[in-house]
Design a protein that fits this description.
The chain is an alpha/beta fold. It folds into two domains: 1-35; 51-362, Alpha/Beta hydrolase fold, catalytic domain (Rossmann fold, 3-Layer(aba) Sandwich), CATH 3.40.50.1820. The protein has eight helices and nine strands. It has helices at residues 6-26, 124-133, 166-181, 198-209, 230-239, 263-268, 296-318, 345-362; strands spanning 51-59, 66-73, 90-95, 110-114, 140-143, 191-196, 216-220, 281-287, 324-329. It has a nine-stranded mixed β-sheet with strand order 1-2-3-5-4-6-7-8-9, with helices on both faces. α2 links the parallel β4 and β5. The longest helix has 23 residues, at 296-318. The relative contact order is 0.12.
Length: 366
């Protein structure tokens, strides 16, 4: 066997190292060890439309699909907060499509989805539901703060909190802010809106008031009819501190709930004002509570919101407006783990999955 001198050996090792570096740069060998994830920067947001950005976007995890940012609004300068919230600072959660590039020309439609009460816009389950439903799709999803009891409305008697103009905040401020800072299809053909429970009311409420903004509306177990016991649920949310502190008066949001002073309740009841949804895609989802002896509070709650969807469906039919109503009863045929109760993640995931498929057939997208 022929032995090499140390000088020759060192020279050959150095040459191999040099070749490895060159091939590594060319992608032939690849990295010597797994490279750490190269973090990207989420989009930067500028102030505007009455909103001040007080917290720039930050990714919620290493997947870099969903970020949150915080704004202050002159329309809701303070609000009843849930634990961990800062009154006057509104967190907004945004999920981007894979491959989103703020420097590219590609524009995406936006799905606004409204949370229930009392809930956080960036609750972990909201992120999971959104990311699963939109995997691989060219769609931006925005979940704004609606407060623990905001009811997606401009309040009649906000009291010491000051203005509680949630509708103005979302429709006149947040939507144009999103369009100005993200690559969106900034038109009716590029927007849909949906919501769960309180948010289901909010989605119909917003679409009825501003059909020029949205192409599709969806209610997931929404509180659509204020001429039922839903009125008591709204009042309860105003009075109970679990929906945020400080609690507010029973007439804060929609005025007096007692006839003959309940005119605002009647004007804002979504099930009775579906006429303006003509031309929009409309979808509703609800169970019947399944076995009402199991989790009776959530079972009965879902049973009653289903009745509000039936009223909305009857009024849509009377107006000749087509709609989809996924009336899945005990949930057994709708989704694994869904038993037809209110606020079940498995049910809401199936609702969202179905709704996203519908809107992607209607919205303008890449």
């Amino acid at each position: 066997m022929k032995f090499l001198s140390r000088a020759v050996l060192r020279g050959r090792v150095a040459a191999l190292v040099g070749l490895a570096a060159i091939f590594g740069m060319l992608g032939v060998f690849g990295p010597a060890a797994p490279a750490a994830h190269a973090a990207s920067t989420p989009p930067h947001f500028a102030d505007g439309f009455g909103l001040t950005v007080v917290g720039q976007p930050k990714w919620m995890d290493d997947n870099e699909r969903t970020f949150t940012f915080q704004v202050k609004s002159d329309q809701v300068p303070a609000y009843s907060v849930l634990p961990g919230q800062v009154s006057g600072e509104h967190t907004v959660m945004v999920t981007l499509p894979a491959g989103y590039d703020g420097a590219a020309a590609t524009r995406y439609p936006v799905h606004y989805t409204l949370h229930g009460a009392p809930e956080y816009p960036n609750a972990p389950r909201n992120k999971i539901i959104t990311e699963r439903a939109t995997e691989g799709l060219p769609l931006i999803t925005v979940t704004p703060n609606g407060g623990g009891r905001g009811w997606y409305s401009n309040w009649v008697n906000p009291g010491a909190l000051g203005r509680q103009n949630w509708e103005t905040f979302h429709l006149d401020q947040l939507i144009p802010l999103v369009d100005a800072n993200l690559k969106t299809v900034a038109a009716k053909e590029g927007r849909a809106i949906s919501g769960h429970s309180m948010g289901g009311f909010g989605a119909f409420h917003y679409a009825e008031h501003r059909p020029d903004l949205f192409s599709y509306v969806g209610s997931f177990s929404g509180d659509l009819d204020f001429n039922t016991e839903i009125r008591a649920a709204v009042v309860g949310s105003e009075l109970l501190e679990q929906y945020g502190t400080p609690a507010v008066a029973a007439d804060a949001v929609f005025g007096s709930p007692v006839w003959p002073f309940d005119g605002v309740w009647n004007e804002q009841s979504a099930a009775q004002h579906v006429r303006s949804l003509r031309g929009l895609g409309v979808a509703m989802y609800a169970g019947d509570g399944g076995d009402l002896t199991v989790d009776p509070v959530l079972a009965v709650a879902e049973n009653r919101v289903r009745q509000t969807a039936l009223v909305a469906a009857a009024n849509l039919t009377a107006e000749g407006i087509p709609y989809r109503f996924a009336d899945y009863h005990d949930g057994s045929s709708w989704a694994e783990g869904c038993t037809g109760k209110h606020s079940q993640q498995a049910c809401i995931q199936a609702d969202m999955n179905d709704f996203v498929k519908l809107i992607m057939k209607r919205l303008r997208h890449p």
